[in-house]
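With this grant's support, we have settled on a layout for protein records. One resulting record is reproduced below.
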Amino acid sequence: MSDNKKISQKRKLETAEDVSLNIKEQNQKKNPNKKKGDQAVVDEFEKNENFEEEEGSELEFEDCEDDIDDEYVDEKTYKKIMQGNFQEDEEEWEDDGDDDDDENEEIGNEEEKQDINAKKRNKKNKNQKVEFIDVQQKPFMGTEKNLEEDEILDFDNKAYEMLHRANTEWPCLSCDFVTGEPHNINNPGFQEMKKYPYDVYVVAGTQSKQQNFIYLMRWSKLHKTKYDDDSDYQDDDEDDINNDDEPELALQSIQIKDPVNRIRAMQNSPLVAYWTENGDVTIADLSSRYDILNQWDPKILASKPKNNPKDKVFTKTFHNQVEGFALDWSPIKPGRLASGSCDGKIFIYNAKNFAFNDWERDQHPYVYHEGSVEDLQFSPVEEYSLASCSTDGTIRVVDLRVGNKKQAQLLVKAHECDVNVISWNHKNPFLIASGADDGCFKVWDLRYPDTAFTEIQYHQEPITSIQWQPNEESVLSVTSADNRLTIWDFSVENDENVEDYGEEIPDQLMFVHQGQQDMKELRYHPKYYEMIVSTAADGFHIFKPALNDEEENEKEKEDLENEDLSKIPKIKESDLNAYLAKMSLN
């Protein structure tokens, strides 16, 4: 098997198994009769048996709720039991001394004596049945492989401002958000982007040995789920009206021949490009399918003919000798695309017109890498700058205006192993993040390429995806083959007032998301603040972490102020005048 084939095979999807989130330790030895129903299995991904390939078919969409019912004896009751005092069904037995002393008591009535002894035996049996279980909760920083026998994974719903899950019939290795209209990602406030419910479009490509599709999905009625388990907050959220509505998923599918390695959507357009396993790069115009979902109505879709010529998808395919994974659209130049393959070649594609209905590819590729090109990124500010990473351990930046295609203008010796992914910071164009096969990821300042700005060895398996938050200079998200998605903020310093968990939790680590099997990729929404979609073998998670508690703090502050005002006594005007008269100097 060739090296290129090994590279492609190691990144394919595997069979999915259900997993769950966070940690709850339970002493199973003390409680051998505990039922399985007491263990909360949060994530349950089921294959959609009713999947239809017809236009507008709906798939299973789940919102995340925490149904945990723990029936343990509390500590106060436990102490009463150990002291010999236990009350149940409004009947109490007290142990006034040793059993020997009780037997020596003079009781005139023998039947009364037997009745008291029977109660004491009954009390003793009840004490033996009731046992206090010590349950401890703490942040879990490992993977499911690190769990002990008496540990299970659980999650706190309040850790997420929003968390929903979606399943398709076939798993997807890659996905991306689709935005059909211009938006301003430089808006520092993002106030209009925080209103619920959300309505988003996602494109994804399947990985299957049987049938493969391009899925264009519309996920609507995405409400806040943070207080789903707290009845005190459910009706008080002004930002989320009608939050009892169930989320909806509408789908358009386009059947293709081969599995999809990578898919990317051009900004502000339903144009998408995707790599397939047979080595083809295809550019597809999904405008007709996007319009169907944009005007989505089950009744209208049911009455439409199945083979409507207006719904046809126009494509342009370019063949390559081997497959690849690297793919990116230019954020500066509409209609410009770059692809990188496992044989080290980088091609540039351009639209021939502003209608984007015809495309051309450069005749000669860039060949300055010594290994497979794993990922590439266009500069967010320079039209002709392109960065790429490779299995040769380097990051290279090239100026597309330079005629020499065998040499890059900047070389960064990034890692001692394969560099799998990179991301160019949209707020600070000097910063590039890279993730490697050894689980390490680094941040580079291109002005000082000899030394990494930041290096973090936290994940236990290869890095599979990395992306800067679009509107934050210091926030970076990473996914790994250890099935963890982590969010980092490099502007954070250690707070002495916060509980210290030791070196186990780095200061810059803000959030850990788990619960997916064979996690492959994350994408930030370019418009909605802090919204992330992650794809894995067992489906999609779309969520917003509760990193910023400003809204909750403001609400608590407002409630406290209202409570203080209610305690102020009312003063009659006559009493006030009398008081002022006494204080008068006259």
Observations:
- DSSP finds nine helices and 34 strands in the chain.
